[in-house]
Amino acid sequence: MFYWLLKLVVLGPVLKLVFRPKVEGLEHVPRTGPVILACNHLSFSDSIFTPLIMRRKVTFVAKAEYFTGKGIKGWFSRMFFTGAGTIPVDRSGGEAAQAALDTLLRVLKEGNIAGIYPEGTRSPDGRLYRGKTGVARLALESGAPVVPVALLNTDEIQPTGTLVPAVKRVRIRIGQPLDFSRYADQRGDRFVERAITDEIMYELMALSGREYVDVYASTLKTAA
């Protein structure tokens, strides 16, 4: 209830008025059944604008720290992410990635939309980086179609480290659903998982027009 109140009454109308989302391909998102939204990741605001423009509820996962902050800032963060339909995941342990996938798989089994960033972290420089195979495992386990979603300019609206976003029209481009049912009997095959992930990343590259780098963004950040 809080999700729809926030989206349709409290926050959503204001965001749409201020940022005037321009969306191409919204008709590609199935109106019923489980769907995986595979998005490139440019900005903190990606998790705000993606659910905003969808007709159905979208569930992302986020680090548990967003839900455990102290004071007014912590309360606002907790209420915002809860209202946005985000589910907290403890990322301190070695099983964090699997916990996130299990959570999203549960969302899909309930016939809903799960959002995921195949790159695993925000792009450090606006380019598109190598995808991690979690999105492929999610597709194979659930049988859900994967819809590529390209955020085109959220890094200009809210660059990393910026608290207050710039007022600029947000642009999003959505591709046609990708069906990987032909690989249904090859779950657990890491070569198949890599092939699926690379196909998804190719679609995101084509949709976004961003340069592709065949390196994990997290590796680049660690090196920096």
3D architecture notes:
Keywords: Acyltransferase, Transferase. InterPro entries: Plipid/glycerol_acylTrfase (IPR002123). This is Lysophospholipid acyltransferase family protein. It comes from Actinoplanes subglobosus. One of its GO terms (molecular function) is acyltransferase activity. With 224 residues, the chain is of the alpha/beta class. Helices cover 41% and strands 15% of the residues. The chain has 9 helices and 10 strands. The strands form 3 sheets. The protein has a 6-stranded mixed β-sheet with strand order 1-9-8-2-6-3, sandwiched between helices. It has a two-stranded parallel ribbon with strand order 4-5. α4 (71-83) links the parallel β4 and β5 (87-89). The longest helix is centred in the last third of the chain and has 19 residues, at 190-208. The radius of gyration is 17 Å and the shape is globular. It starts with a helix and ends with a helix. The mean pLDDT is 90.
Ordered list of secondary-structure elements with their pairings:
Elements: H1 2-10, H2 12-19, E1 22-24, E2 35-39, H3 46-53, E3 58-59, E4 61-63, H4 71-83, E5 87-89, H5 96-109, E6 113-116, E7 128-129, H6 134-142, E8 146-151, H7 154-157, E9 171-174, H8 190-208, E10 212-213, H9 217-223
Parallel strand pairs: 1-9, 2-6, 2-8, 3-6, 4-5, 7-10
Antiparallel strand pairs: 8-9
Helix pairs in contact: 5-6, 6-8
